[in-house]
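This part of the workshop introduces the protein records we will be handling. As an example, a complete record with its sequence and its structure tokens follows.
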Amino acid sequence: MHPNRFARTALRCLSLCLAMTASAAVAQTTPGFTPEWVQRSNEIAYKVMDMSAKFAPEFVGQMGISGYDEEVFDLRENLYERQMAVDEAKIAYLNELLAIEEDPRVRQDIEIMLQATRDNMETNTVNYERVLPYGNLTGLIFAGFNGLLDKQVPPERQRGALVRLKKYTGLAEGYDPITELAKERLTERMGVPGLIEPFIGEVEQDLERAPVMIEGLNALFAATDLEGYEEDLALLAGQLTAFNAWVTENIVPNTRSEAALPRELYELQLRNYGVYAAPEELIRTGQVAFTNIRNEMMALAPLVAAEKGFDTTDYREVILRLKDEQVPGDQLMAAYQEVMVALDGIIEQERLVTLPDEPARVRMATPAETAQQPAAHLDVPRLIGNTGEFPEFIVPNLQPDEDGNWPTSDYAFPAQMWTLSAHEARPGHEMQFTSMLRGGVSTARALFAFNSANVEGWALYAEAIAKPYMPLDGQLLSLRARLLRAARIWLDPMLNLGLISAEEAKRVLMEDVVEDDLNAQTEIDRYTFRSPAQATAYYYGYENLQALRAQTELRLKDRFDQREFHDFLLAQGLLPPEVLSKAVDENFVQPRLAP
């Protein structure tokens, strides 16, 4: 999800991500199996997380830290000052430990946590000093309840939602309505001169989607065994509706018409997502990659056309023909499950990576989940103290119209299902998070080192290693997905630096990447106001992994085994690129080169 700006500073150190939505903090689930150094590192990490948990308890609870299911995020006064004081205390605590720690692995984890805290402080400060703290309050509340009331969460934990409801509404003693606190925080900052106002397109879209998510709250509670929530939930729905009317009256007139960010804020966004390159470098990388991938598609399209009997060889027209092969919504899950079983067979036969013991899971989102997150994504369960919950691949909800006709969707044709499943399920995100859940990766390497570049980079790399074994039409759509990621890495910075218009960027997406109007506009929204800079992380992280593999393969020659290499990468968690490269050299390459 894309966190609300009210909570963004509190959540930054907890590594919430947008668009995908989840971060990972992991403890080995088999008693007695966790290495001693991992246990010590995790104890430090849990204390550091606990220090900030009070600012965003809903999402700490989703990660698996106990004791926060009944709590609500903090919008009381002096929020920034209190957050900075906590971060300063974290740094003092971590520096004390670093001074006496002897195990190099624990030291490395402490340094990761220190860097994450410093980054968080910088982000908090820049946003406090430069940005009006508008955010999608309805979406944030929906996301918190959606995580707590998930079917995989035990009923005894779900009961915390009843207490949380009373705290949100102000019915609990000592609590004010969350909507009133949000108004106070916005109002006190609206008087500060020079703050960057929210983009009008973002605010209008939030308001448009709010009724669906408010109705989605009713659906979430109705799907549980909880009782006695109806009056409190109706009160919260009324408060949110009134808050959104207040936003319409007070925030909409005080918005900016252009989405582009000042350069310093955009570069900060890049770093937050793990992209350490100048915008101009990203633009050059992306444009070269875009041209090369498009050439590959031009060469492959005639083979797909011949196999399918199409009377065209233009890759754009071939893709449009493939999109016509729509699977009805009531058959969609079976179709995805079939593709995922086939991918498991490919992974095993071609020795791409070691498969987990349990199968990957897929389900269709609810309408409210689709409004809150319209793209396919992986839903990650609690990750600290996980006792068997699984990540789930979530496909956007499709519903027939009044005449019973299913809508055309980029998620509902077979050629697309191959690369989407490889990205979100296996060998992509699902395998990455399952490996951390079951493998005893330290929390620092899974959570504090988390960023979009090392998560999305792996998923795009996973598409690439599976692509040669897909059907020809699946290969063409896999290249199209890579073309989109290459487009992102140059369109996103160009839009934010004012080097291209939104209309021209949308034309590129629709004509060259063959996105439909809705998906192309969703991309533009993503680059300009939903999560500027995040979309660059896919290709940036992918290139880092491809470079690391090339270096490793060239050094090991016939001693290189890709399954061993990929297993090793997954076992490291989400290390920063330079730390991962060092780990590969010292613990993977050198032992294999030894006589």
Q: What stands out?
A: Residues 1-20+38-130 form one domain. The CA atoms of residues 320 and 420 lie 17 Å apart. The beta strands are 361-364, 377-379, 392-395.
